[in-house]
Amino acid sequence: MSDLQAKTIEINENKIAVAAAIIPFSIAGALIRIALERLQDYTGAPVFGLVYAQWVGCLIMGLTNKNKNTLFLWYHPIHPGITTGLCGSITTFSSWQLGIFKEFANYNAYPHTRGKNVLAALSEFLVTLAMSLNGLLFGQHIGDMFSKQIEKRHALKSEPKLVARGFSFRYMSKKDYLTITFAIVSWLGVIFAAIFSPYQRDLAFACVFAPVGALTRWYLSFFNGRLPHFPIGTFAANVFGTIVLAILALAQSGPRITAIACDVVAGLADGYCGCLTTISTFMVELTTLPRKPSYIYGFLSVVIAQCFMFIILGSYIWSQGVNPMCS
């Protein structure tokens, strides 16, 4: 297919519609992650449950990015909705860091030597990294197959050209208004569930806080181009989310708190922190950056996150012990 056959189609990039698309997808992503973790939470499980969520989120990310233009031409907000909202919320960087720290610190007081604690932490680190990369590459392979099939069906290739419209209600389409309406209804639905439902309130709170985390991460992504070869926005989201999760884990391990407070803390951990931080975008950046900056970015992200875990959570549990109040 020659370049002469391709035509450029201008597409309005309205950030209000994009933000609205992220909201329901982030709620769905948080639910998928929590469900996958709970499915794997049984005695004798071969690996930690979170690894499946990381793999699934990265797989969808790889598939979606390979069909980016197709999604843009169909309806632009659907792409950031899936990548930022869904994939970014299925995967989580902060819980990964908490898992590494808990293994290293032997949080659950297993009869391990210190050397085995280090091996356990290293396993959590490497297995998650390997599975996430595997999911991303596998998703890209599937995406390639889909994109080739789409190209065969369309004789004329179209290239989308995004026209930035900012946070404005001008140039909005009917699809945009439907997306905004659906986002509002979705968010209100989980808020009412958190208020009135007597069951699974921690899950409801997670759904309430999920869009806040995802939208914060999306906003921080605007700063990713500020430093060459260092996605400062994703870095800030992952590190800040890890700090917040360490504080929440401290609250769960410290003084006695009420049952409703436990549900709120769990909701913030799974919803806000889980959706504020991401491995899917992190893996895309690691695989697209030049080699040296990629290693620097990955190393700093993990090391700085672990430093905050040790300072905030480690300093307490090693001096006061572990006394989980929200188990």
TrEMBL record:
Keyword list, A-Z: Cell membrane, Membrane, Transmembrane, Transmembrane helix
Reaction catalyzed: fluoride(in) = fluoride(out)
InterPro entries, sorted: FluC (IPR003691)
Membrane topology annotation: Multi-pass membrane protein
GO cellular component: plasma membrane
Transmembrane region(s): 16-36, 42-61, 73-98, 118-139, 177-197, 203-220, 232-251, 257-284, 296-318
GO molecular function annotations of the record: fluoride transmembrane transporter activity
Subcellular location: Cell membrane
Main location: membrane
Keyword field contains Ubl conjugation: no
Protein family per UniProt: Belongs to the fluoride channel Fluc/FEX (TC 1.A.43) family.
Protein task: Fluoride channel required for the rapid expulsion of cytoplasmic fluoride.
Protein's recorded name: Fluoride ion transporter CrcB
Phylogenetic classification of the source organism: Eukaryota, Fungi, Fungi incertae sedis, Mucoromycota, Mucoromycotina
